[in-house]
Amino acid sequence: MSDHNPECLFCKILAGEIPADIIYESDSAIAFRDINPQAPTHALVIPRKHIATINDIDVADQAIVGSLFSAAREIAAAEGLEDDGYRAVMNCNEAAGQTVFHIHLHLLGGRALAWPPG
Ligand code: AMP
Ligand code: ZN
Question: Which domains does the chain have, with CATH numbers?
Answer without folding.
Answer: 9-109 (3.30.428.10)
